[in-house]
Design goal:
Length: 428
RNA sequence: GUGGAUGUAGCUUAGCUGGUUAAAGCGCCAGAUUGUGGCUCUGGAGACCGAGGGUUCGAAUCCCUUCACCCACCCCA
């Protein structure tokens, strides 16, 4: 068989069994978020291109070369969102959500798009579960947000996920730090790898997490951001750590932790997975972003979890996902009249909220029974001319093969419930 | 954008140095059991061996090209 075309590069279909698992994980995250006072926001898949240019910083890799940007028929430049924060901020402002008082807490579970070369944990279409908090600069908000993230990951049973923490300061102290870094690395220009050399001007902080051994060695001796933080940033960072410790949340300080988007200030963090070799998600503060997008100066923070990566991590550690519920009653039928009756009984069961099914593929009785077994049906009801004439049929309990006679007329549902209450029931 | 690996039934794979009708397991369908699932047995359908070209009497197998997918780097979720 040859398909005329396959799913586009970097995209995947979540087939039923997979989709079930996703839904289970998503539900756990939603529960955790709502427990923490977050409410869902749904924003468009595409936004005006400038939102991302302004928001993420137009010299970032994502904005420079990874965006799905195109002109619509009206000549507007629009972009498939490469991340969730910018849209959430825009929606928060546009709908005046801040008028209900601070903090505003939002969560979203959305697909994002980046034009990348796909590999493990990196797709062109990927899903992010994100949370954002607006309107507080207090370090307690940072700690609480991080605590929620850790708690959600733990609730899912993830064991090899850590917490890496850093503060990259505010624009003022970061400026000084950049200068110090540039001075330090410029003095060692000859040894740096070519990529890092090019980073020297634009974003010297990125050199800190270069994978090249030589650069790592050099970076190890580089000035640390924490030594350059202004007093406010220092005490803010100290408080965040203090609060995390108070909640018994272990973390490792990583002065080299630099996030790829320009909007971050002060606290930044990631949830690295040891076995996968990359972070499941991360986030931090972005105290300047709301204003940058055109809103009032509003401190804010948030994080995103890569759903695809989260699923990889769960599968890697062989998480047991809940079993599929299966069909409760299968009504097998022989002959046209019985088939009609079966369809009608199934419909009745559905109206009562019971999971039921019957053959729709023209199978013989034996095949129908086999199919019922495959569906994991708990009960099977066989209808033929005899049963129609008698107005009764035998309800078979598939687990042990025992049968009980029940009426298939007026008393059908009542009789069925009487038997299934005794034996057990999947739905309702 | 750079580098590496892999493409054989729906799925997982065998097919060594080129030699008839390309094999197996799982899955699917059917029969054994003309009105009763799971277990067993038997049978069946299903593959132009990713595509194109070349070498050869002969190519799934060797060569070239291309496409797809995977992995790593870069970057990030």
């Amino acid at each position: 068989m040859e398909l005329i075309t396959k799913a586009p590069k970097g995209t995947v279909d979540l087939v039923p069994q997979t989709a079930r698992r996703w839904r289970w994980v998503e539900q756990a995250l939603i529960n955790e978020a709502e427990l923490n006072g977050f409410a869902e926001v749904r924003t468009p898949v595409f936004e005006h291109t400038e939102l991302f240019q302004r928001g993420m910083g137009d010299v970032t890799d994502v904005v420079e070369k990874q965006m799905y940007t195109f002109e619509d028929k009206g000549g507007r430049s629009v972009t498939l969102r490469p991340e969730g924060t910018a849209g959430a901020v825009r929606a928060m402002l546009e709908n005046g959500l801040y008028n209900n008082g601070y903090p505003v807490r939002l969560y979203y579970n959305i697909p994002c798009y980046r034009y990348e070369k796909p590999q493990k944990g990196r797709m062109r279409e990927f899903r992010t579960f994100g949370v954002e908090v607006f309107g507080t600069a207090e370090p307690i908000a940072d700690a609480q947000l991080i605590a929620m993230g850790m708690s959600a990951l733990q609730r899912l049973g993830l064991t090899d996920v850590g917490l890496q923490l850093n503060s990259i300061g505010c624009p003022t102290c970061r400026k000084e730090y950049h200068q110090a870094l540039q001075a330090y690395f410029s003095a060692r220009k000859e040894s740096l790898c070519p990529t890092c050399l090019s980073r020297l001007d634009r974003n010297p902080m990125r050199i800190l997490d270069c994978k090249s051994p030589v650069c790592q060695e050099i970076a190890a001796g580089a000035p640390k951001i924490t030594d350059y933080l202004c007093e406010d940033c220092q005490s803010h960072f100290a408080k965040v750590q203090e609060y995390l410790t108070a909640m018994d949340i272990p973390f490792t300080l990583d002065p080299g932790l630099v996030r790829g988007l320009d909007y971050y200030t002060r606290t930044v963090f990631e949830f690295p997975s040891q076995s996968l070799g990359f972070a499941l998600g991360g986030g931090g503060r972005y105290d300047e972003l709301v204003e940058e997008i055109g809103g009032p100066p509003t401190p804010a923070l948030g994080f995103g979890l890569g759903m695809d990566r989260l699923m990889l991590a769960l599968e890697a550690q062989k998480t047991e996902f809940p079993e599929e519920a299966g069909c409760e009653v299968f009504v097998a039928a022989m002959g046209e009249a019985a088939k009609v009756k079966a369809m009608s009984l199934v419909n009745t069961l559905h109206k009562c909220g019971l999971g039921a099914d019957c053959d729709v593929c023209g199978r013989g009785l034996k095949a129908q029974m086999k199919y019922a077994g495959k569906l994991g049906a708990q009960y099977c009801l066989v209808l033929g001319d005899d049963e129609l004439a008698a107005g009764k049929a035998r309800l078979k309990y598939m687990a042990d093969g025992t049968e009980k006679e029940i009426g298939i007329g007026e008393s059908f549902v009542e009789d069925y419930l009487a038997v299934s209450t005794e034996k057990g029931r999947l739905s309702l």
